[in-house]
Structure formats: structure tokens, C-alpha cells
Design a protein that fits this description.
Blueprint (H helix, E strand, L loop, with lengths): L2 H28 L20 H11 L20 E4 L5 E3 H4 L5 E6 L4 H17 L4 E6 L4 H11 L5 E3 L4 H6 L7 E5 L5 E5 L6 H12 L4
Parallel strand pairs: 3-4, 4-5
Antiparallel strand pairs: 1-2, 1-5, 3-6, 6-7
Helix pairs in contact: 2-5, 4-7
Length: about 220
């Protein structure tokens, strides 16, 4: 082999090694799981979102506790779904958490711009409605740390469910858009599904309250 050929082969070996190292680094940073077939597996939160790692973001977000279980079994379509309460990491039985109360479910993700615009309006709507209505947000991405940091940034302290697998949206047949709002009557039935964003608390009250029979 000539010296030129040997030099070319050496360069190729180095390039391949660098490419493999870069690929490994990307794999480590991605923090994702795959199934035996190689397809991504949906998870409620990332491996990096350990209780220890979430402690400081949780303290910054200072979220309201998730609703306690109601007296009944809750809506049938939500039975068997358990997710994490973002406030403290406890497990929430979703059907029982929404049982016997009027609930406004707000589905969002930390990377969604319209969601960030809407969340403060949801918080103001909750403040106005008081105990008549429970606004419960549902974070639909596995990056729980980012969700907590976004809520802290916005100053929104609404109770939040961490649902990276989007089980709640699937059970309620919510269109695959964000933000989206689902209104549940106190008997657990779906009053309406609103795959749209709201800019103000007034807009939310105008769209939601007439279907629930509560004053605006």
C-alpha cells in the first residue's frame, strides 16, 4: 500500500471513530427508551426526572395540591388511569380525582407557545370561580422538569397532572392539538371538548360556563 493510501485509510478510521462517539453522545443526551422493535416508548416522565432532581423545580413552581378522591368511582372512561401529581409526585387516580366536582381539564405542554399564553388566563378563571369549578392542568410531555420551570416562570400554581403518555386525552378522545380544554360535569360526563386556545378568563367563562350551569 502506498503512503498516500495508508494516510487516507488512517483519516477514514479517525472519522469513523469520531462519528461513533458523536452518535453515542446524542444517544445519551436524548434520554429516551425504545421498544424491542426500536420504536420510541411513551413515558410519563424522563429517567432524569427523579424525585431528587424535581425537588427544586417543584419548590419553585409551588403548585396547588391535586384534588383528593371523590366519594364515587368517577367517569368510567377514566377509570384505571393513574398519573403523577406534579406538585408532590404522589399517584393520582384520575377518575376519582374528578369525581363529584365540575372540572375544567386544560391539556398543554411546556414547549407549546399558545399554552403558555393561555395558562395565566386559566389561573385567573380559577380565581374568579373559586370552589364552584376545579381547573386541573394536564402536562402532556415526559419532560416534567421543563413543565415545572415553565409554570414557575408564568406564576401559575394550578394543580397539575403529569401525563407524558397522554392517557387522559386518549381516553376522552381529545383531538391531537394543544392547548385543549375538556369540561367535565359533576356526574363525570363530558360537557364539551374545546380544541382551541383562550386569551382571557372572560373568554374561558363565556365558552365554558353556560354548559355547566354556573354563572359567569
Amino acid at each position: 500500500m502506498s503512503s498516500g493510501a495508508r494516510w487516507t485509510a488512517a483519516v477514514l478510521v479517525v472519522l469513523v471513530a469520531l462519528g461513533f462517539a458523536f452518535w453515542q453522545e446524542l444517544g445519551d443526551d436524548a434520554d429516551t427508551s425504545t421498544s424491542p422493535t426500536g420504536s420510541p416508548v411513551a413515558r410519563d416522565h424522563r429517567d432524569a426526572d427523579t424525585p431528587e432532581a424535581l425537588a427544586r423545580p417543584r419548590a419553585s413552581a409551588d403548585l396547588a395540591p391535586c384534588p383528593p378522591a371523590g366519594p364515587g368511582a368517577g367517569p368510567e372512561v377514566l377509570r384505571g388511569i393513574s398519573v403523577e401529581c406534579a406538585a408532590d409526585g404522589s399517584t393520582v387516580d384520575v377518575a376519582r380525582a374528578v369525581d363529584d366536582r365540575i372540572v375544567v381539564l386544560n391539556l398543554w405542554a411546556y414547549w407549546c407557545g399558545p399554552c403558555a399564553d393561555e395558562l395565566p388566563a386559566m389561573a385567573e378563571y380559577q380565581r374568579r370561580m373559586g370552589s364552584e369549578v376545579t381547573v386541573l392542568t394536564v402536562h402532556q410531555d415526559e419532560n416534567e422538569t421543563a413543565a415545572l420551570l415553565r409554570l414557575a416562570e408564568l406564576g401559575v400554581h394550578l394543580p397539575t397532572l403529569q401525563d407524558g403518555r397522554r392517557l387522559i386525552a386518549a381516553a376522552l378522545k381529545v383531538p391531537n392539538v394543544m392547548p385543549a380544554t375538556v369540561v367535565l360535569r359533576s356526574d363525570g360526563s363530558v360537557a364539551q371538548i374545546l380544541p382551541r386556545s383562550f386569551a382571557t378568563a372572560d373568554e374561558i367563562a363565556e365558552a365554558v360556563n353556560p354548559r355547566m350551569g354556573v354563572p359567569g
